[in-house]
Design a protein that fits this description.
Elements (H helix, E strand, L loop, with lengths): L2 H5 L17 H19 L9 H15 L20 H13 L1 H7 L1 H48 L1
Helix pairs in contact: 2-3, 2-5, 5-6
The structure holds zinc ion.
Length: 158
C-alpha cells in the first residue's frame, strides 16, 4: 500500500474506470432509420420521415442482419463497414440511400449527423492506423529478408 492510499479514505480515492463496451447498435439503427426517412421523402414521394413500402422492406431486411453483425456490440457504422452483410443488392441500395441522404440529414438532424460523422472519422482513423501497421510489418519483414540475404552473400564471399 502506498502512503497516499493510507491517508485518503477509500471512497475519495479515484476508482479505476472499467473498460467501457459501447453498444453502438441503437444509435446506428436510429441514424439509419432517419437517413432512410430523409432519402425516401426526397425521392419516393413520402413525407414526415415515413417510408415507402420498398424502403420499409429494405429496412426490415437489414435491421435483423445488423443484430448479427460479426463485429458485435462494438460494430463500426454500417456505411463504413469493410464487409457489409446485407447481400450485394441490398448493400448497393443501402449505400445509395446513405450517401443520398447525407445533405438532407445535415439539415434535418444536424447533431446526429455530426456525431455520426465523428464516429465515421474514428473508423477511418482506425483503419488508417491498421493499414499503416500492416505496411510497417511488411517493410520490416522485407528488410529482415534483405539483411539475411546480404549476410548469406557475405558468408559465401568469405
Ligand atoms: Zn422509399
Amino acid at each position: 500500500m502506498s502512503f497516499l492510499s493510507k491517508i485518503i479514505p477509500e471512497r475519495f480515492r479515484r476508482k479505476k474506470k472499467p473498460i467501457e463496451l459501447k453498444n453502438n447498435l441503437p444509435k446506428e439503427k436510429a441514424n439509419i432509420r432517419k437517413s432512410f426517412g430523409v432519402y425516401c421523402n426526397a425521392h419516393h414521394g413520402t413525407s414526415d420521415g415515413k417510408l415507402c413500402p420498398k424502403c420499409t422492406a429494405l429496412l426490415a431486411t437489414i435491421m435483423p442482419k445488423m443484430n448479427r453483425c460479426k463485429y458485435g456490440l462494438t460494430k463500426p457504422i454500417c456505411d463504413r463497414c469493410d464487409s457489409m452483410c446485407f447481400g450485394p443488392e441490398h448493400n448497393k441500395t443501402f449505400m445509395t440511400i446513405m450517401t443520398g441522404s447525407r445533405k438532407g440529414m445535415l439539415v434535418k438532424h444536424p447533431i446526429m449527423t455530426v456525431k455520426h460523422k465523428l464516429v465515421a472519422m474514428g473508423v477511418d482513423y482506425a483503419k488508417n492506423e491498421q493499414s499503416k501497421k500492416a505496411t510497417e510489418k511488411i517493410t520490416e519483414k522485407r528488410k529482415a529478408k534483405i539483411a539475411k540475404r546480404k549476410a548469406q552473400e557475405k558468408a559465401k564471399e568469405e
